[in-house]
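@channel sequence for tomorrow's demo:
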Amino acid sequence: MVCRMFRLETEVDKARRDLLRTRLRDTNTLASPILQSLRGTPGEHDTPLHIWAMDGQDALAGGLVGYTWATWLHVTHLWVDAAHRGGGLGSRLLAEAEHLAATERGCRASRLETWDFQAPGFYTRLGYDIVCVIDDYPPGITEYTLTKRLA
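structure tokens (generated this afternoon):
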């Protein structure tokens, strides 16, 4: 029987994080023909997608930050200033992101996460389906993961 000793370290180490990410990606690629087919194509890497709404004074009225990867749009952040809410700006930002992702990047679906006090109803009204619910994440809050098929 082989006994191995390991030293566990807990400090933040960006170089090791990057090495770990690379090794995990390589392991996953070897295990998946679909991920193998992405290697060497534009779909292999995340491509940022940002949309900004500026008001008449060039102040940020709202925005969407996300990325595309492997025929998916992932919406990371969507925010509209309180003064501009209720007028359709959030819907316009999301529709523009979906349009660009589908027509310019070949995306077939979109995904995002939101909390119960944010906007799950907003997203379901725009055609998103709740596919995951995590209660008490963080404590006292429910997180939702939603997806939508793009035309």
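heads up for whoever presents: DSSP finds four helices and six strands in the chain.
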